[in-house]
């Protein structure tokens, strides 16, 4: 029951977060005082701005506008894109599959490889192999996604001509974006799994398992890894945010037609309804991902489950 | 003296400090003493590869599309980027420490309110919101510092609160309260000194996140505007010329890598040392 109450409070907290984000993206437009002038192009006439202000309802009291924004939001209506004159949510849904493909492929290869490298590194602690893995992990976390991406384009697209440098198409288009985006994640996973597993392998119950004569790999997999996963799972939510941020930059470098590129272009074009839609959507994905992490955590950690 | 015995096991930390000192030295000495102008170039000397000699002098890292010396730009860009990162980190640390101590010391509804704000902050993918605010407010250095600072205090508040809770019940705090010291004095004199060490470690580990965040904003062209260089916008500008002048992308990236590796290694070492002390 403790676990259920924990999950309920986390779900409630997720709702509070979404309310907070909705307030942030709404009130952000009022920071300069005049959202109508902010959204119109700089060479719009005063009369045009006035007409736009009336059409958008910017003359109403601000709390009324926020309530209206929330009401529309609950119906999935985030207004029209100023640039394309189409619902912002339509643009979002069109671009979503590309981002999902990129993020999931990066997540899958990097967590699988990060797990293997972390386990090998922990079991062969202080060996030459461990040292090499640690150096790779350190470098993977140190270079910005966009820099790694540019160097890969230079080498594999421009010099060797092995892979296409931009756009979306066959699997060849996915290789470099996925590697660039997963590089940070694989390093983070490796470091985390290593640290966590080393800690667990030093515990008394591992010594007991060894004393019983169980094989090394059996101990690591059956007894070590399960417990080592608790801290690893806990921070997955935080890393997921880093992944979303990385996806944004990766999509720009590789001209990948996803929501990150949509958002950056919308910011550059001052197309704020689209920006609001993407921010709210990523926040929602993030809240749900964190909730799933909480469920996994409750399931793995019997101390909470009781 | 650094004898062999003292160095053993601390090679990481020595290497990390060397990296950080090297980057900081470049960022201070180059803008101060390097004779070439980071903002003005010679149009007859564009895209010169590293170690080229021109009329203006030697270009150890080459020149860019406007014939500007890359070393001069990289030095100034590192200074601007590190300045933005450190200033916003300072805001985050001060704000987080104050809010965390207040939450931990007073408890009750103040605690609940502050910790909910922390939860919200830790639960939002911030880069998009930062881009949105920068686009609305304008990409000045002051705006960048304020936005990065105000979005990064949550981790510090969380640690400051935890440490405050632990210190609050100790005898000497009781004693201070018994002799009638005010809450403000107790927090400043007895609680704060106890949380400086863990916050320093946390800051070291948080700096890489900020450095890469600032560089990403710059790379996307939404940060400090040209002709002023930053680590991010140098790479963003160099991107268009990568096939004919790869050094424009290569060196700024190495600079970011060096300072991030330095901070991460140093932070890990500090954590290990703190663990050893406790056990």
Automatic annotation (TrEMBL), chain A:
Subcellular localization: Cell membrane
GO biological process: transmembrane transport
Top-rank taxon: Bacteria
Membrane-spanning intervals of the chain: 12-31, 100-123, 135-158, 170-187, 228-254, 274-300
Main location: membrane
Cellular component, GO annotation: plasma membrane
Membrane topology, record value: Multi-pass membrane protein
Keyword terms: Cell membrane, Membrane, Transmembrane, Transmembrane helix, Transport
Pfam families recorded: BPD_transp_1 (PF00528), BPD_transp_1_N (PF19300)
Record domain ABC transmembrane type-1: where: 96-293
Family: Belongs to the binding-protein-dependent transport system permease family.
Name assigned to this protein: Peptide/nickel transport system permease protein
Native source species: Paracoccus versutus (Thiobacillus versutus)
Automatic annotation (TrEMBL), chain B:
Keyword annotations of the record: Cell membrane, Membrane, Peptide transport, Protein transport, Transmembrane, Transmembrane helix, Transport
GO CC term, one of those recorded: plasma membrane
TM segment ranges: 12-34, 79-106, 248-271
Top-level taxon of origin: Bacteria
Family annotation (CDD domains): TM_PBP2
Pfam families xref list: BPD_transp_1 (PF00528)
UniProt membrane topology term: Multi-pass membrane protein
Protein name: Peptide/nickel transport system permease protein
Span of domain ABC transmembrane type-1: 78-267
Organism ancestry: Bacteria, Pseudomonadati, Pseudomonadota, Alphaproteobacteria, Rhodobacterales
Location relative to the cell: Cell membrane
Family: Belongs to the binding-protein-dependent transport system permease family.
GO biological process: peptide transport; protein transport; transmembrane transport
């Amino acid at each position: 029951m403790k676990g259920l109450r924990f999950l309920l409070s986390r779900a409630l907290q997720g709702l509070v977060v979404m309310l907070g984000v909705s307030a942030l993206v709404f009130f952000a437009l009022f920071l300069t005082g005049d959202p109508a002038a902010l959204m119109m192009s700089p060479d719009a006439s005063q009369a045009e701005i006035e007409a736009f202000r009336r059409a958008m309802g910017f003359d109403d009291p601000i709390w009324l506008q926020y309530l209206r924004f929330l009401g529309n939001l609950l119906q999935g209506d985030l207004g029209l894109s100023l640039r394309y004159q189409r619902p912002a949510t339509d643009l979002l849904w069109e671009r979503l599959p590309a981002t999902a493909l990129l993020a999931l492929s990066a997540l899958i290869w990097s967590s699988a490889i990060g797990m293997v490298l972390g386990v090998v590194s922990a079991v062969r602690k202080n060996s030459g192999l461990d040292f090499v893995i640690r150096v790779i992990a350190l470098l993977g976390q140190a270079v910005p996604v966009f820099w790694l991406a540019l160097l890969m384009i230079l080498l594999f697209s421009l010099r060797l001509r092995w892979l296409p440098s931009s756009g979306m198409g066959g699997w060849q288009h996915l290789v470099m974006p996925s590697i660039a985006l997963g590089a940070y994640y694989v390093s983070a996973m490796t470091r985390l799994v290593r640290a966590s597993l080393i800690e667990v392998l030093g515990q008394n119950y591992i010594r007991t398992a060894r004393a019983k004569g169980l094989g090394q790999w059996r101990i690591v997999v059956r007894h070590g890894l399960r417990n080592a996963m608790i801290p690893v799972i806990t921070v997955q939510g935080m890393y997921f945010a880093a992944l979303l941020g990385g996806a944004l930059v990766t999509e720009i470098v590789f001209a990948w037609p996803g929501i990150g590129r949509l958002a950056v272009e919308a910011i550059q074009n001052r197309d704020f309804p689209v920006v609001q839609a993407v921010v709210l959507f990523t926040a929602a994905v993030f809240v749900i991902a964190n909730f799933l992490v909480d469920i996994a955590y409750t399931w793995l950690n019997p101390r909470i489950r009781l | 003296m650094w004898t062999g015995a003292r160095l053993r096991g601390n090679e990481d930390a020595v290497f990390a400090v060397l990296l950080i000192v090297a980057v900081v030295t470049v960022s201070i000495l180059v803008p101060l003493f390097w004779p070439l102008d980071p903002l003005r170039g010679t149009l007859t000397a564009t895209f010169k590869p590293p170690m080229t000699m021109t009329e203006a002098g030697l270009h150890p890292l080459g020149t860019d599309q406007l014939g500007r010396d890359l070393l001069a730009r990289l030095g100034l860009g590192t200074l601007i980027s590190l300045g933005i990162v450190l200033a916003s980190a300072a805001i985050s640390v001060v704000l987080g420490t104050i809010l965390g101590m207040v939450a931990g010391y007073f408890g009750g509804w103040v605690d609940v309110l502050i910790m909910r704000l922390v939860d919200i902050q830790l639960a939002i993918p911030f880069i998009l919101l930062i881009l949105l605010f920068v686009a609305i407010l304008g990409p000045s250095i002051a705006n960048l510092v304020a936005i990065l600072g105000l979005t990064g205090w949550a981790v510090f508040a969380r640690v400051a609160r935890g440490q405050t809770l632990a210190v609050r019940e100790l005898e000497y705090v009781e004693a201070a309260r018994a002799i009638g010291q005010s809450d403000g004095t107790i927090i400043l004199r007895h609680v704060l000194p106890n949380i400086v060490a863990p916050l320093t470690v946390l800051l070291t580990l948080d700096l890489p996140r900020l450095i890469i965040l600032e560089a990403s904003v710059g790379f996307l062209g939404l940060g400090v505007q040209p002709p002023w260089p930053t680590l991010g916008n140098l790479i963003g500008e160099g991107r268009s010329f990568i096939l004919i002048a790869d050094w424009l992308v290569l060196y700024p990236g190495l600079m970011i890598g060096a300072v991030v590796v330095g901070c991460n290694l140093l932070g890990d070492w500090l954590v290990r040392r703190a663990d050893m002390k406790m056990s």
